[in-house]
Amino acid sequence: MADPARAARLAQRIKVIVAEALRRRVKDERAELITVTDARVTNDLQHSTVYYTVMAPDEASRAGAEAVLAANQGTLRHELGRQLNIRLTPTLEFVADEIPESAAHMEDLLRKAREQDEQVAALRQGAKPASEEKPYRWQVEEDVTSSTETDDDADRSSAADR
Known about the structure:
- By secondary structure, this protein is of the alpha+beta class.
- The protein contains 5 helices and 3 strands, in the order H-E-E-H-H-E-H-H.
- Helix 1 packs across helix 3 (73-83).
């Protein structure tokens, strides 16, 4: 087993090699829409997972990009073996990256939260308190003075009992 630092360096190198090979070696228009976002390698350096996104609005283009990757997987692996100086060339697995979709979902949630904050701020502009400004202030002060009086009375009675 290789150390994790070596696996991370190899993953970065695989990411660059696959991206360059998609640009230079694959002769398909659909490959231009593919962006390699990340790569992961197992610690034994046998298998690699390449994450990609497709910059296309429709599902047909995404399916076409997936077909391009599947059809050219051998070419990409050959290019990896040619440029990497390791004993075994890792297998390639392509996985569509979910980051753009989840980022768009988070942006939508943040936009809705901002709209709700603006609505609350608009309601708060003309709002007045339901009662006085400090309705509990007098009650707290009365409780404090009454508790100190009872403490003094308790001290006097305990002193008289002795």
